Amino acid sequence: METILQGILLGGLYGLFALGLSLMFGVMRLTNTAHGDFIVLGAFCSLTLVALGLSPWMALVATLPLAWVVGYVVQHVILNATLGKDPLPSLVVTFGLSIVTQNLLLQIYSADPRSIDTGGFSTMGWSVTEGLSIGVLPLMILALAVAATGGLQWLFNHTAIGRSFRAVSDDREIAELMGLNARTVCALATALAFVLVGLAGTLQAMRTTVAPSDGPLLLLFAFEAVIIGGMGSFWGTLAGALLLGVTQQVGFRLDPGWGIWGGHLMFLIVLVLRPQGLFPKTRG
Amino acid sequence: MAALLQAQALEAFYGDAQALFGIDFQLDAGELVAIIGANGAGKSTFLKCLTGLVRVQIDSVRWKGKPVGGMAPGKIVREGLAMVPEGRRLFASLSVEENLLMGARAQRKGPWNLDRLYRMFPILGEKRSLASTSLSGGQQQMVAIGRALMSNPEVLLCDELSLGLAPIVIREIYSAMPAITAEGMTVVIVEQDVTMARRVSQRLYCFQEGRVSLHGASGDLTREQISLAYFGL
Amino acid sequence: MNPTYTVVRGSRGSAALLVAGVVTVALASSLPWWGESSWMHQFVEIACYFIFAMMWNLMAGYGGMVSIGQQAYFGLGGYVMLVLGNFLGVNPFVAVVLGALVAAALAIPVSTIAFRLQGGYFAIGTWVISEVLRLTIANVSAVGGGSGTTLTALRGIDKATRESVTYWMALACVVASIALVYLFLRSKQGLALLAIRDNEVAARSQGIGVGRMKLAVYVVAAFGAGLAGALYFVGNLRISPDAAFSVNWTAFAIFMVMIGGIGRIEGPLIGAVVFWGLNKFFSDYGTWYLLGLGVLAIVMTIRFKQGLWGYVQQRWGWTLFPTARRLALHVEQIPAVPAPPNSVNVLDGTVGAN
After folding, report:
1. 8 Å CB contact of A89 and C251
2. What are the pLDDT digits (tens) for A216-252?
3. Which of A175, B157, C36, C95 is the most exposed place for a label (fewest CB within 10 A)?
4. Least Cα separation, residue A164 to chain B (angstroms)
């Protein structure tokens, strides 16, 4: 029982990892292979701010607007040129960005894993019942994940910018005919995705350690969450993330070497049995 | 008086392939002009050139005398030129009403709004919150027309309204045309159905392999002239 | 009188280059007698990179499948070779080919999973599959688990012979893989592949079995990757899961192909040479070097999508390995088109006699 609970809490963090990926793919059909590395970048940004004297929570809040700007610029300057029917340019360019980011971080920060000291907050527990206690930080992360998912879903369905996202994703050319500047819309989507990435990275650094080369593994977690959950809906992505977290914890419990492997296996099983994911939202 | 919309020696390319070879075209306010021609004659390409979806030389297209060739599509819509694209091309993830609202982004003043559209096409009002793709072909065409009208244009370009629709549906769609032109809206229709085109339009252009092969008042042109120009014999 | 056409492929230039190529290969095979052992070792290493890059190019440039997980077969080839050599006493050089065959065989069931994804998600999916393989093997203690093991089967052979044979094997594999890809692309299957790459729906409507073609390319690429992997670890003698299944193999392959030119046989060749050069002079700079490679790959993809050879081909029309078919028109006499008896005045529609 506790394992499952731990899994759900872990899944909350994975949900935050995955939302940004899902958003970028949903609006632009762009697969960002550097997604994990940007999460790590967000973590190191907060780490630096903490080292400069800010409190961990101030650092988190300060990282978000920085992430917005970085995302906007990256999309406008680099990624917009790769959009189109051919998936190759965006894959190669984001792969290149992944290598650049990793090595830049390695150069500046060295390969040591670090974490953000939250002054005991990360170890605070909340006794639910006798013998069962939940970490406050993981619970907060899960709450943030749910809030972010709900927020994104609401944004997409009930706001003008959400309509723009959906319109550009459906038919870029006709969206331009309606007066939308597709480049700006895409840049806004990426900026938003990066804010989620910055949030996720900082929380990861609070919960555990981060090192410059952690990126690829985080990408795989995010990706698996999206596929397991099914493409097309943010709630689906969150569900997939929770499932992934639970699977990993169960695997971990059986044997420490099988934790991540178990998650991979679950992903492959879903892919074989139900390739559209568990909760896909079909588009017309 | 300067023509409302004018094309002069317009050439268009898709990469290295030339699609249009020097089109001359004129549109005056209040007219309904038809463009006919076989598949691949360049009719849709021409409309795309007018709306900025295909780049052309800046002075190939003039709007009220001002050169606008190659302008960004959004800017052209704000000038007052709207298009109902070939194949409808509605936004699949948006509902009927959201599709219509997208058309209003140009924020131009005019008589067209949601209420008026729902009065003209009541079925859309009934289905306003449904996904646009769940409607029938004819209803989708109404949404596409409505979306273009929501920008309150001065000129409405209609690309193959009858494509893929049953004759009775086509008649129903075209029966709304008087309501659209009643307040002086200028309309260009691209049509494969020559009879319908001749009936509703005042002037007619025939395209053949990227060139204008015939042009004149719809009432004056004979069937034989049109056939010859259509097939390029 | 109709003008006649013939289908022409090569040109005088490409024939000359072919002769030059044969001469180079002959010269290269004599290297063990006059060259240093470090040269041979370097060649084997670059040969492995090159073959891997050729396979990635085949999949991505011609098959339209971008994969970040081909290192799965690279590592698999290496481990199978090791197992056959260490535990079953198979001659490691024979085991190289066997390793490649096993990799190709595994590619068939794996494709049923991988092909459920498209585009960018296919790419990451292949990476996941590679990671599954890596983690699985890292848990098998018989092959050294996470820290790897050494290839003991070559202990009996003296160093010079081992190095020479490894070198010749690498040279043979390079020539064979170039020849294989070239002949494949010149064939009808190759033409079908290009059709699929350009427009899958149109190709299908022409009766081309798209699914079968893609599977064929995937399996061939797996074979090549397995070959490169097995060969690499024969040269290296030490294998570990992290080295065998490292995503860096794919990263370097992508780099070589994008620099050299994707979708062209000459591309990986040029790219491998450039990569070798950069490696030689700059690899000491560690992270800055890798960073530079990454930036270069980004710039090349955005600005020079066709790579170095693509630029050259567009500018001067050079082709080392001509696969395109050109129509050569035999111009004897192009007769004047006679005027029609009646002409239509297109301006006013009047019909008159000529």
Report:
1. no
2. 999 999 999 999 988 778 999 999 999 999 999 988 8
3. C36
4. 8
CB within 8 A of C204, min separation 6: which ones? Answer: C210
Query: What number is the ipTM of this complex?
Result: 0.88
User: C139 CA to chain A: closest CA distance, Å?
Assistant: 8
- Provide the chain C residues 89-148 that lie in CB contact (below 8 A) with chain A: 112-113, 116-117, 119-121, 123-125, 127-129, 131-132, 135-136, 138-139
**Where are chain B's structural domains?**
5-231
- Distance CA(C267)–CA(C25), nearest Å, equals 19
Contact B196, B162 (CB under 8 A): yes
Task: Judge whether C168 and C25 are in contact, CB under 8 Å.
Answer: no
Per the structure, the complete domain to which residue A20 belongs is given by: 2-106+136-212
Question: Rounded to whole angstroms, how far apart are CA atoms A206 and A138?
Answer: 10
Closest by Cα among C284, C315, C282, C312 to C296: C282
Note whether A283 contacts B: Cβ–Cβ < 8 A: yes
List the subunits that have 3+ CB pairs under 8 angstroms with B. Answer: A, C
C-beta of residue B178 within 8 angstroms of C-beta of residue B102:
no
Q: Write out chain B residues lying below 8 Å of C344, CB-based.
A: 228-229, 233
Contact C68 A103 (CB under 8 A): no
- Closest chain A CA to residue B79: A179
C-beta separation of A193 from A156 below 8 A = no
Distance in angstroms (rounded) separating the CA atoms of residues A188 and A135? 34
> Is residue A226 in a domain?
no
For residue C176, how far is the Cα from the chain centroid? 12
Q: What confidence tier does C37 reach under pLDDT thresholds 50, 70, 90?
A: confident
CATH class of the domain defined by C4-332: mainly alpha
Nearest to A185 by CA among B173, C206, B74, C275: B74
Chain C residues touching chain B at CB-CB below 8 Å: 344, 346, 349, 351
Shortest CA gap B146–chain C (Å): 33
| Stated pTM of the model | 0.84
Which residue ranges make up each domain of chain C?
Answer: 4-332
CA-based nearest residue in chain B for residue C343: B233
3-state DSSP call for residue C64? coil
Query: Judging by DSSP bridges, how do beta strands B66-67 and B61-63 pair with one another?
Result: antiparallel
Instruction: Assess C311–A contact: CB distance below 8 Å, yes or no.
Output: no
Unique residue bearing structure tokens 């192009």: C334
Nearest CA distance, B138 vs chain C (angstrom): 27
B102, A163: Cβ pair inside 8 Å?
yes
Of the candidates A163, A176, A177, the beta carbon closest to that of B94 is on A163
The pLDDT tens digits for A147-189 are 999 999 999 999 989 999 999 999 988 999 888 888 999 999 9
Burial of C118 from C-beta contacts in 10 A (0-12 / 13-18 / 19+): exposed
Residue of chain B nearest C348, judged by CA positions: B214
Residue A127 lies in a domain: no
Count how many domains chain A has. Answer: 1
Query: Picking from C4-13, C40-49, C297-306, which range would have the lowest pLDDT averaged per residue?
Result: C4-13
Residue A76 located in a structural domain:
yes
A163 at interface of B, judged by CB pairs closer than 8 A = yes
Whether domain B5-231 has CATH 3.40.50.300: the reply is yes
Which strand (E) or helix (H) includes residue A127? Answer: strand A125-129
Q: Could A173 and B53 be called an inter-chain contact, meaning their C-beta atoms sit closer than 8 Å?
A: yes
* C123/chain A closest Cα distance in angstroms: 8
- Dihedral angle sign, alpha carbons of residues A64, A70, A73, A76: negative
The answer to whether A166 contacts B51, with C-beta atoms less than 8 Å apart, is no
DSSP C159-212: HHHHHHHHHHHHHHHHHHHHHHHHHHHHSHHHHHHHHHHH-HHHHHHTT--HHH
